[in-house]
Design brief:
The chain is built from nine helices and twelve strands. By secondary structure, it is of the alpha/beta class.
């Protein structure tokens, strides 16, 4: 982790409402350079909504976002990408009928002009894709292989590699191993560790505390739309994190009052 005490990203007072439901409630969240920061919590805790506010997929209702100490106006995914924030969602958003290089440059193809018309520079994209995969130690049989023929782990590595090529300052991984087997999970985790060693900063949404404690430097717990605590992995335990997830840090009496004021299923869309 970097010695720089200042956060790379700082979210202050982020609030997002869906009609009468508050999915994210005045959340503060900081991400420091060179760390893997886990965001955990039960289903509908608000973690995905918070991250979508950061990635520009959802417009926040209130709050501020700072990048390297400067205000960041993020209102769309294009804004986030322009600022160096890339997101890899569970569905990967890969084009199955295209090969590796075409997916890495999808929507941001390298072009050249010939016969007074623009053309995709396929040779250069293939060359740069091969160099990137080699640097990241991603082994694929053929750079021209169609994505639909790949394993889940290989596909996830391609999606993550795409975010790295465009010099992302922050990479957000939404449940990166949720649908993968043990061997494929290790492949993806090896890539994530290498990325951290190369100085990349990552946020990982996960339900698997074993993975979180194996991979991450800090953990932030969300519950019913609120940030209920951030802990360093080295100074915490799974039991403490589970307690935060279950109770939000309240004692039994406080928890009973808290639950009685929250309508059942109120955060189902978070």
């Amino acid at each position: 982790m970097s010695d720089d005490p200042g956060p790379l990203v700082e979210m202050r007072g982020i609030t997002k409402r869906y009609g009468g439901v508050t999915a994210v409630d005045s959340v503060d969240f900081s991400i420091y350079p060179g760390e893997i920061h886990a965001l955990v919590g039960d289903n509908a805790a608000g973690k995905s909504t918070l991250i979508k506010c950061l990635s520009g997929a959802v417009a926040r209702d209130r709050g501020e976002i700072f990048l390297n100490g400067e205000p960041a106006d993020i209102r769309s995914p294009r804004d986030a990408k322009r600022l160096g924030i890339e997101t890899v969602y569970q569905d990967l958003a890969l084009a199955d009928n295209l090969d590796v290089a075409a997916n890495l440059f999808l929507g941001r193809e390298i072009m050249f002009t010939g016969l007074a018309r623009p053309f995709m520079n396929i040779r250069r994209m293939e060359k740069e894709a091969a160099a990137l995969l080699e640097r990241l130690k991603i082994s694929l049989p053929n750079i021209r292989q169609r994505v639909r023929t790949m394993s889940g782990g290989q596909r996830q590595c391609v999606a993550i590699a795409r975010s790295i090529y465009f010099n992302a300052q922050l990479i957000i991984l939404d449940e990166p191993t949720a649908a993968l087997g043990v061997k494929e999970t290790e492949m993806v985790f090896g890539l994530i560790r290498d990325m951290r060693d190369q100085g990349h900063t990552l946020v990982m949404i996960s339900h698997n505390l074993n993975h979180v404690f194996d991979m991450c430097d800090r953990i932030t717990v969300m519950k019913t739309g609120r940030n209920v605590g951030t802990r360093k992995v080295a100074e915490s335990s799974k039991e403490e994190i589970v307690t935060l997830i279950m109770t939000g840090g309240f004692d039994a009496a406080e928890l009973e009052v808290e639950n009685s004021s929250t309508p059942p299923g109120a955060f189902a869309s978070a």
